[in-house]
Amino acid sequence: MVDYSRLPRHQVLCIDMKSFYASVEAVNRKLDPLTALIAVVGAKDRPGSVVLAASPALKKEFGIRTGNRLYEIPPDPRIHIINARMGLYLDTSMAITQLLNEFAPVEAIHTYSVDEAWIVTDGLEKLYGNAHQVALKIQERIRIQLGLPSAIGIGPNKLLAKLVLDNYAKKSGIAECRYEDVARMLWPLPVEDIWGIGYRMKRNLNMLGIYVLGDLANYSLPRLKMKFGVMGEQIYYHAWGVDLSPVFVDPAEEIRKGFSNGITLMRDYSAHEIPTVIYELTDHIASRMREIHAAGRTVSLSLGYSKHEGLRGFSRSRTLPEATNISKRLYDACMALVGQANIMGKIRTIHVGVSNLVNDDAIQLDLFSGPADEKLRQLGSAIDSIQARFGGAAVFRACSLTDAGTFLNRTQKIGGHYQ
Predict the structure, then answer these.
(1) How confident is the model at residue 95, as a pLDDT?
(2) DSSP per residue over 328-352, as a string?
(3) Nearest to 277 by CA among 213, 315, 334, 344
(4) Helices (H) and strands (E) in the chain, counts
(5) From what superkingdom does this record's organism come (predicted)?
(6) Which own/partner contact pairs does 223-227 have at CB distance under 8 Å and 24+ positions apart?
């Protein structure tokens, strides 16, 4: 048994915007998000386009949900089929974060996704009341100011707030789960409702006779650790509602852990086309690092083969002698890693990451490459200024104009979809 008296108890709210993209489009058209029939898709001109969001009424009346295809939507004139507008959704997400910031400081807000966030309300009792009263006030403010419906889960940690949101609050509006409620509220739920338990883990647990969270919570911890290692211990304690991850975050510290950028290509790429995409990715990462005056030492590269190849992907990293925020140096490191990859087939995914960050004033110029690096650094800063003023497509590498280039297409999109 877990001794809950030894665990920290916070007031954590997990806020989810109901059918976010569809709700934003409904408000934008002066429709009721809860009754309008709206489907947001990647591209209306492609029958196979994925439904990115379906309004609650569309789900209820026609059974259309996120993940369905455009051709599955019935030809009903009441249904609004809308191309995704990621810029609008991100602006609305920022407005929600700003609203939350009126209740709590920024370190008490953890944005999980464009439509979901945690907010810690410790110490707000004298201003707004208990956690449930704070949730009601936030929910009402979001509805009045932005016109959007929301659901809020409340718990003593992020895990419980998220679990009660997904399994109860999305139906009732607001729900709370304390440690004392875990056995009653969570143990009857299927094991796959815990983070980290996918199809394969679910199947392995089912083979042990574990089907619901209560089975998992009352299973032998030593046996779980022996069979699944650290993951076994984690899911065991999660079944008890235990989550010791920090509830307060430092946004600046989160950024400084590293930067990454990746792409799933629109077609299979041969080995000689990869350098163009890698240069585009390192350009973007270098610009983001310069923006916060950071430089990185460790460069990682991951390549994923086309599913038709039947090959495992490649992932390697290397640490540079000195930290850098120059795209050419990051590119050179990636190409050295490509040389180790022994590419044997077509590539479909490319991912570049830079970590081990320091302030860029800690960069030391090498005796031989120093002058050249300084010119590259000045060039990078000049490009940053031009793109900030005139847009990302104002200046870019000539190689992006080749068939292998992805830059121009990506500048027209946010999150993989057109703005």
Answers:
(1) 95
(2) HHHHHHHHHHHHHH---S-EEEEEE
(3) 334
(4) 17, 14
(5) Bacteria
(6) none
Q: Which of 318, 297, 300 is nearest to 364 (CA)?
A: 297
Please tell me whether residue 265 adopts helix, strand or coil conformation. strand
Over residues 37-72, the pLDDT tens digits come to 999 998 888 888 899 999 999 999 999 999 899 999
Residue pLDDT, tens place only, 172-207: 999 999 999 999 999 999 999 887 788 889 999 999
> Distance (Å, rounded) from C-alpha 161 to C-alpha 179?
11
E-assigned strand segments in 270-378? 294-305, 314-324, 347-359
* Whether the Cβ atoms of residue 295 and residue 363 lie closer than 8 Å to each other: yes
* Residue 320 three-state SS: strand
Q: Residue for token digits 């990078």? A: 380
Q: pLDDT digits over 136-175, tens only? A: 999 999 999 999 999 999 999 999 999 999 999 999 999 9
- The closest alpha carbon to 281, from 406, 418, 419, 409, belongs to 406
Degrees to nearest 5, angle at CA 165 with 161 and 167: 120
Report how far apart, in Å, the C-alpha atoms of 261 and of each of 94, 109, 264, 279 are: 21, 24, 11, 11
Whether pLDDT at 111 is above 90: no
The neighbour count for residue 177, using CB atoms within 10 Å, is 24
Tokens of 141: 């403010």
**Cα end-to-end span (Å), the chain:** 51
Domains of the chain are: 20-87 (3.40.1170.60), 186-239 (1.10.150.20), 251-418 (3.30.1490.100)
Work out whether the CA dihedral 150, 153, 158, 164 comes out positive or negative.
negative
Tens-digit pLDDT profile for residues 8-22:
999 999 999 999 999
User: Among 72, 107, 116, 140, which one carries the catalytic annotation?
Assistant: 116
CA dihedral 119→123→129→134, nearest 10 degrees, is -10
CA–CA dist 333, 339 (Å, integer): 10
Looking only at Cα atoms, what is the longest distance across the chain? 70
b/e string for 377-409 if b means 16 or more Cβ within 10 A? beebeebbeebeeeebeeebeeebeeebbbbee
